[in-house]
Design a protein that fits this description.
Blueprint: H1 6-26, H2 31-46, H3 51-71, H4 76-92, H5 94-101, H6 120-135, H7 144-152, H8 165-168, H9 182-219, H10 226-257, H11 275-281, H12 284-295, H13 305-323, H14 327-348, H15 355-374, H16 378-388, H17 401-412, H18 416-422, H19 427-446
Helix pairs in contact: 1-2, 2-7, 3-4, 3-6, 3-7, 4-6, 9-10, 9-16, 9-17, 9-18, 9-19, 10-15, 10-16, 10-17, 12-13, 13-14, 14-15, 15-16
Length: 457
């Protein structure tokens, strides 16, 4: 069930909100179990075969947490983290490892071709965050229902944001509709839902028509003209932003409707004047996770410049691998690690760069590396790069209008979260958002409905 589907928008979400409101008023003690049940229905709609995997993952990690609190065994949490990563690797990386093994002459490893459970990367990282903080003495024990809701809460279970236990667990005890700002939260939640849906439908999805044919042709070995290559590369730059940030806006808005505040995930990243600034603005919750649970444990900036640069490179390379089981994703992450390392050396040397030049170089670097992220293989990426650098035919028919509009919205305006919270309450504003929501629904019914890009990760 997609956020941008009729079955979600016109059936599941209204029914879920009505049930939640009734339970919150008449049986408050049932509220959390209801949210868990709704989350399992939502998750199982995709493929009910993976509901036992999600439930088993929740129960196993919760039991590990309880066992650790009873025995304080030093090995228990590291073993559980390793187990979570092993399950992730089994489903997500087994084919990738088989492909790597098959590069060895004379070796023929089978490819299982298992279906990737939706959201497994995200709920695995949620388990790791909680267990790591539990071992460090920062996280308390929770009951099974609360822990299950933390892991499976349906607005964020499939593609984030990555929510720390400390950001949401205390909210489970609140009476959301008894708060003095309950009406305001609901209004802003509806606005965020509408804005996110609009970003996906009016900007992200139309760009797919500019992007997909070029990268599909490159995957088939067909040369890309300069016009096609730049159209596809710039198109994907903004497609992935509006697709993923639109999903996040919807997730934050839906959570507000149920009385829960999730952390922001995007803060106008294409205005960044450095690569470090970009990663503070793009997929912010993943950046925090990589910093706190990988970069710092690897040494961070506490053990000298060489360790810092190496830890940064390793962190971003593994971050690239997390995004996808392919060497192109590894290369994408490694390049960002090298770029961030170069930024550290530049700042350590006491050098300064004009903000406009820093923005231009950062934007160019991010745009070019998106090719590796999107391409199906290095060969396909090379075809697109040849087109970008003028090593093929010039071509014609560059479709710039939608890309120009997307670029303006992505770089000039505020984030959806900031905009929604700045708007004052007004009847005309409510009517405008209601009209926009109806127009979006009509657009969804008229056009192709694309799945969210980050569902594949």
């Amino acid at each position: 069930m997609l956020f941008n589907s009729f079955v979600f928008l016109l059936a599941f979400l209204p029914a879920a909100l009505a049930l939640h409101a009734l339970v919150a008023r008449y049986r408050p003690g049932w509220r959390l179990p209801l949210l868990v049940a709704l989350s399992l229905v939502f998750y199982g709609w995709w493929d009910p075969r993976f509901v036992p995997l999600l439930l088993g993952s929740i129960l196993a990690n919760w039991l590990v947490a309880r066992a650790f609190l009873r025995r304080r065994s030093a090995w228990l949490i590291p073993a559980a983290v390793a187990g979570n990563l092993a399950v992730l690797a089994l489903f997500k990386y087994l084919d990738f490892l088989s492909d790597l093994a098959n590069l060895i002459p004379g070796l023929s490893a089978p490819r299982p071709g298992w279906v990737l459970p939706l959201g497994i990367s995200f709920f695995t990282f949620h388990h790791i965050m909680y267990l790591t903080d539990l071992r460090a003495g920062r996280a308390p024990a929770y009951g099974l229902t609360k822990y299950a809701l933390y892991i499976a809460f349906f607005p964020q279970v499939l593609a984030g944001p990555l929510v720390r236990w400390s950001e949401i667990m205390h909210q489970f005890d609140e009476r959301p509709y008894a708060r003095p700002d309950a009406a305001e939260r609901i209004a802003r939640g509806l606005m965020l839902l509408t804005v996110g849906l609009s970003k996906k439908v009016f900007l992200g999805d139309p760009l797919a028509a500019y992007v997909n044919p070029v990268f599909q042709a490159a995957a088939a070995g067909k040369a890309a003209t300069a016009a096609e290559a730049w159209q596809a590369t710039l198109g994907f730059t903004f497609q992935i932003y509006f697709d993923f940030s639109g999903y996040t806006d919807m997730a934050l808005g839906i959570a507000l409707l149920f009385g829960l505040v999730l952390p922001q995930n995007f803060d106008v990243p294409y205005r960044a004047a450095s690569l470090r600034d970009f990663w503070r603005r793009w997929h912010m919750t993943l950046s925090r996770f990589l910093r706190d649970y990988l970069y710092i444990p690897l040494g961070g900036n506490r053990r000298g410049l060489a360790i810092q640069v190496a830890a940064l490179f390793a962190t971003m390379t593994l971050g690239g691998l997390w995004h996808g089981a392919g060497l192109t994703f590894v290369a994408w992450g490694a390049l960002h690690g090298l770029g961030l390392g170069a930024g550290i050396l530049f700042r350590r040397a006491g050098l300064r760069m004009p903000a406009i030049l820093g923005w231009a170089l950062t934007a160019l670097f991010v745009v070019l590396t998106w090719v590796l992220f999107r391409a199906a293989s290095f060969e396909a990426a090379l075809i697109v790069f040849k087109g970008l650098f003028g090593l093929g035919p010039a071509g014609s028919g560059f479709k710039w209008r939608t890309i120009a509009v997307a670029a303006a919205v992505a770089t000039l305006g505020p984030s959806a979260w900031a905009a929604v919270h700045r708007l004052p309450p007004h009847r005309l504003l409510a009517a405008a958002f209601g009209l926009l929501f109806v127009i979006v629904l009509l657009k969804i019914g008229d056009d192709a409905n694309y799945e969210f890009i980050y569902f594949q990760f």
